[in-house]
Amino acid sequence: MRRFRVICLFGLSALSLSAYATSWAALPMKVPRFLVDAFAVTVFNGPIVSTYFGTPPQEVGLTVDLATDWLAAYAYDCVLCSGGTSFNALLSSSFQSLNSAWTNSIPGFSGTEVMDLVSFGGILNAPGRQFALIESGANQTLQAAIQNGHLGAFVNPSNDTSPSTHIFSQLYQSGQLLNPVVGFRFDPLNPKITIGALDPADYDGNLNWVEINAPSASFDSLNTFSIDGMKGYNGSFIPFGNNLTANLDSLVSTIAIPNVSTYISSPGFMGPIVNSVTSSGDLVYPCNVTTPYVALSATINGVDYQIESTGSLLRPHTDASPEGYCSVGIVNKSDTLLPSVSLGLPFLRSVYLAYRFPTDGCPGHYGFAFPAGANRTSSQISQIPASTPTKSAQCLQFTTPTSTPSPYIEVTAQQKLLSSDKYNVYGETDDAVYLAGVDDLSQMDFLAPASAAPAPAPSSSSTEVPMFVPQPTQSSGMYGVFDTPQHGLVTLVGVDDLPQMVWYAT
């Protein structure tokens, strides 16, 4: 099931260019240390970035999606939504419902259109931002792919000559962004997103820019670009044909290539691996004796990008894997539709990605480099792109930041609900925790038993009001005790003070 191909949903607030200082934000992302077994289809592998909604702000960890443009947060009472954070509209003083269903709702994944403040780290702010508030998340495919909410990090190229309604474009048009560019590191070494600038400390080598060139605005994968091909173990191209294209997909944990049998049937492409393909068509390698190496590279504009094997292409063995085998994140692309190749998380975790979103008459571009600190040789890093995009001088010259703004968020709405003291959790030996709403509970007064000594009378100078302690009274009747003989009738204390139940005849 392919994700929504979405027409832009969001309205713009009237923001003057002088309302904000030009800046950029560097925010950490959460990614798994390794991608899980391909057989475990319900396990979440995606990247998450903290985003703030409402006044006071509420932190929601949005799933980053490179292929679409829609913005959404899961409602706090969302039915069957996955993840651990959500947005509570009742806690926001700036929330506004638009009283209309989300236009992209489908059975099992639906919501309403709303507006509120959206902020990245308190540095970049979009007041009156329209987004979808998801109220039902029962769709199993999307449960596994999206947690907490959704940040569509792709600006629809059909809007490059008119005011775009994407949140990145809105921030740029309001004068908040230093540059119309976003940087991504999906690797577990230093996962992060930079909005408004590219940090030179995040990558090694030259930025290899290619233009995003989907055939038309109605094309299913709008973030499509040209690639030279895919290479195997021996460094030669796997024969997939000519004029190849690829897209980027941060919600899938595999690399999809055509005719995967060509790859696995040749030791030159696959390497010295005795492999096995399960009955369901999943590629697995033996891993009970040694750790195999999965050899696959993507060549883009003359530069080879090695795709990480351990933790990305090669998955840890799990109970769902065949005994003695580990699954491999390479799947067959059975259809002949473009793009030719789909580069999912294994590729994204192996490169540094820059995205120049379309604006000011410039088309969208992707830039690729090597993540700083990754295990890459000097010969790999020193590769030179084969060509330069046509509008490079006009569209790909960016201001380098001289400092990194610190994220700043006042006490969030969730933090305001937490107790002032910590409480121990019964049966747990970990540290005590804060509890939500405890300080708002009414206090309980413990009354002394009737047999206790009476409290001393207050002194004449005391302003304390003595507390009235009601005396318990015996019941006027006798009551039988369940499963005891007749002589077990007893009187009960306080029964006469209980409200009476009236039985109505039918």
**Which of globular, elongated, flat, extended, rod-shaped describes the shape?**
globular
Q: Average pLDDT across residues?
A: 84
Gyration radius, rounded = 30 Å
The percentage helix is under 10%
SSE class = mainly beta
Strand content: 25-35%
- Identify low-pLDDT runs: 1-19, 462-470, 502-506
Give an overview in words.
It is a single chain. The chain has 506 residues and is mainly β. The chain is built from eight helices and 26 strands. It has helices at residues 140-145, 167-173, 260-264, 267-270, 345-348, 378-381, 392-395, 413-416; strands at residues 25-30, 48-53, 58-65, 71-79, 96-101, 110-120, 124-136, 149-152, 181-185, 192-195, 203-211, 224-226, 229-231, 245-248, 255-257, 276-277, 283-286, 297-300, 303-306, 325-327, 330-332, 341-343, 352-356, 365-371, 418-423, 433-436. The strands form five sheets. The protein has a six-stranded mixed beta barrel with strand order 2-3-8-4-7-6. The protein has a five-stranded mixed beta sheet with strand order 12-14-22-15-21.
In short:
By secondary structure, the chain is mostly beta strands. The chain has helices at residues 140-145, 167-173, 260-264, 267-270, 345-348, 378-381, 392-395, 413-416, and strands spanning 25-30, 48-53, 58-65, 71-79, 96-101, 110-120, 124-136, 149-152, 181-185, 192-195, 203-211, 224-226, 229-231, 245-248, 255-257, 276-277, 283-286, 297-300, 303-306, 325-327, 330-332, 341-343, 352-356, 365-371, 418-423, 433-436.
Features:
single chain, 506 residues, mainly beta, 6-stranded mixed β-barrel, 26 strands, 8% helix, globular, disordered N terminus, disordered C terminus
